[in-house]
Each structure stands twice: as structure tokens, then as C-alpha cells.
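User: Predict the structure for this protein chain, please.
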Amino acid sequence: MSLGGSTAGARIAELLRDAKGTLCIAVHRNADPDAVGAALSVAEMAQSLGREVHLIAPEGLERAAKELLKALGKENPFSPPNMAEACDAWVIVDTASISQLGPIADAVLGKEYAVIDHHARNSLYQGKGIVDPEAGSSSEIVALEMEAMGLKPSKTTATMMLAGIIYDTRFFRLAKPTSFRAVAYLLESGADYRLVLSTLTKGRNSVPYSEKVARLKGVSRAGIYRAGDLLIAVTCIGAYEGSVLNALIDLGADIAIGISRRKDRTRVTIRSSKRAEEVLGGAPSADIASHIATALGGSGGGHAGAAGAEVRAEPLEVWGAIASYLASKGLRVKVLEEGRWKEECSD
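Assistant: Here is the predicted structure, written as C-alpha cells:
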């Protein structure tokens, strides 16, 4: 599913140049530094080709992305989702499924669009753009394409792309060889490495009150299950899902799953440890999300360590789909502690 090198860069350039009407670049909801960095760089690519573009964030930016923009002295460049109706063509960045587009999903479907992404399972991709699951981040993909095209990002964008690579590779713990090639190019383009490190590490050590509360609630509600030698934590939480699940992984879970009721839908967020990847093979978080979406009718995608799905089903049906995925791997689920997640998700 990967398109790489200058050929891919040329195809992106062709789309940016030839797309009719208003061109928009969208990120996933609660966009992280990688999504923001990749989107800013695609916008600069389009502008270098004489195109005016609009950046759209369907549900705002994650805290780390906001802090980086603030540290760079840059105003939030993203428009709210109500701008989506004016868009005639799209580039969708760092987004693995239609559910991740939230309120702009309907505006995107049926229009011309390309995808630039690094997730192992991408249900949005239809042959236009680049989807490279071997890349460590979407910012890395775009950085190497810009280099192949002989383009150079602004210092601000280069810094944000560097932040995206560091953020998505978990401070290089998940980095690929291409990650370091992209980093070298961005540093040569003026990226501020010290600013990125100081901002990201400061953010990790200064968690807002509301996020602390969400973490504690998520842990207190969690059910604990065993599948083979894997420990699985399931909780019901409606905010800061990634932060809550990362906390559960840090506490010892091999797979952490957050379930959230949203009107007539259920949103599922998944995090997996390196050990889960070794035991299950493939890309466990993405595979679980895809299995849920296939079994219950919805959309889902992501990569090995992080993924999400959204389905029109009850939380207990979602748990049934997760159990069936584990059964397909020869693992039977045993209850260690039921927790309160089922009760909380049923309210």
C-alpha cells in the first residue's frame, strides 16, 4: 500500500496543482504534533505550487500540539469544521479511518481526496497519495518527499515536523532508519531541536488537572483480563483517552482499551505494548480496530501501538468483538477483575 520516493512526491504535487476549486488539508480529530507538522508541510508544498489552501481540524488540537505552536509564536492556523462545506478537494493527513474525521466526514466523502499516512491499517486510502506503514510518522513521509522535490520547509514548519517525528516515535524508541534521515533534513532546514525537546518534556511533566482526573477515573473503572500471557485493561472514559490508556500501559497492561459512548455510536481507542506485538504478531492495535469495525459495521484503523474504531454498537458488543479477535489468535479471555467499566459505559 506504500508509494515512495520522488514518484510519490510528484503524484502529490500533481494533485495539489491540478485539484479543482478550493483545496483543503485536514487532520484527524484532536490532532497531535505529527498530524499538525505534516499538514503544515503539505500546505507549504501547495503554496509553492501557487495554490491557496485551508487547514481544517475537525475537533481541535491536542495539548502537545497547542503548546508547540505557542512555543513557536504561531497562531493556530486551523479553521473549524464548519469550513469543510466550502472544500472541493482534500488532502487527508495522518488519518486512518473516516471516523477520525468526525464532523467533516460527510464533507470529505464524495470529493476528490488523497491520503498521506503511516498507519498499518488505513480504510480511507483509495489509491491517491502515500500510505507507508514502514514510516515512523506522517511528518517523516512528507519531509522526505519535500527533500526529493527540492523544497525546503520554513523554520517553523520544520520544527513542527521534527516534533511530529519525535512525538510519534516516542522519542525515537519506535524510530525507523528513514526517521533519522528525515530528522537530518529537518535540522539542516533550521528545525529547533532544543525547543522541541523542552516543550514536549515540559508537557509530559505538567499534566493539567482535568487530565489527571481522567487518568484516575480511567484506572479506577478498569476491568483486568488475561488472554494467554497478555494482560488486558478495559475502561470507560470519554476524554483524554490516549493519556488514560498510556497510563494503563505504564502500569503493566499489554493492551489497553478505552470505550466511550457518543450518542448512537461507540468509540474505541486502543494502545498496545511492544510485548503485545511480539505475542500477537502484525499490528495488534490496528488489527483489533479493524476486526471491531468489520464485525460490527463501522470504521477503524491505526498502527501497531495505537488505533481507534467507531461503530454503531453497544459497548458489550464491542467487548465481544475484541474477545473474538483474541480467540482467532488462540487466546481465551479470563476475568481477573471485572471493574466498573461496563456499568459506567451503560449509563
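The chain is about 45% helix and 20% strand.
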